[in-house]
Amino acid sequence: MVPYEGYIALAEKLNALTPGSHAKKTALFSTGAEAVENAIKIARSYTKRSGVIAFGGAFHGRSLFAVSLTGKVMPYKAGFGPFRRRSTTPPSPATARTSPR
Ligand SMILES: Cc1ncc(COP(=O)(O)O)c(C=O)c1O
């Protein structure tokens, strides 16, 4: 990534708007799938853990790793496997709210 003036200006604005007195960093991505994959890379680097929790039925994008986290098979996954095994797949909060206990 080559930072340019507009990118840096927007990142600084977002950092200033983010609540808290901790150090802040901003990275901008072109697509949701790219944001999801980079969030996982950052979390892995920080935690040194590889597991990922993805809600069942959720959509996380069409790239190979993002689609491996996506819960919906049709039309996103059918015929495109094998995928990375999802570490944990709890029901989505919406499903959990409506499911009988
Ligand atoms: C929660 C979530 N993650 C990822 C994506 C993927 O975004 P994109 O299609 O820009 O890669 C979407 C798109 O709707 C989304 O809603």
Report on the architecture of this protein:
With 101 residues, the chain is mostly helical. The chain has four helices and no strands. The longest helix has 16 residues, at 32-47. The N and C termini lie far apart (48 Å). The model has no long low-confidence stretch (mean pLDDT 88). Bound molecules: pyridoxal-5'-phosphate (PLP). Pyridoxal-5'-phosphate (PLP) binds next to helix 2. Pyridoxal-5'-phosphate (PLP) binds at residues 31-33, 36, 59-61.
Q: Could you write a compact summary of the structure shown?
A:
The chain is an all-alpha fold and 101 residues long. The chain is built from four helices and no strands. The chain has one domain.
Mean pLDDT: 88
Cα-atom Rg, whole angstroms? 17 Å
Please describe the biggest sheet, giving its number of strands, its sense, and whether it closes into a barrel. none
Query: What fraction, in percent, of the residue positions are helical?
Result: 40-55%
Strand content: under 5%
The domain tally reads: 1
**Segments where pLDDT lies below 50 for 5+ residues?**
none
Q: List the ligand species.
A: pyridoxal-5'-phosphate
Structural class: mainly alpha
Please tally the helical runs, counting DSSP H or I stretches of 4 or more residues. Answer: 4
Gross morphology is elongated
The number of distinct β-strands equals 0
Order of helices and strands: HHHH
Distance between the termini: 48 Å
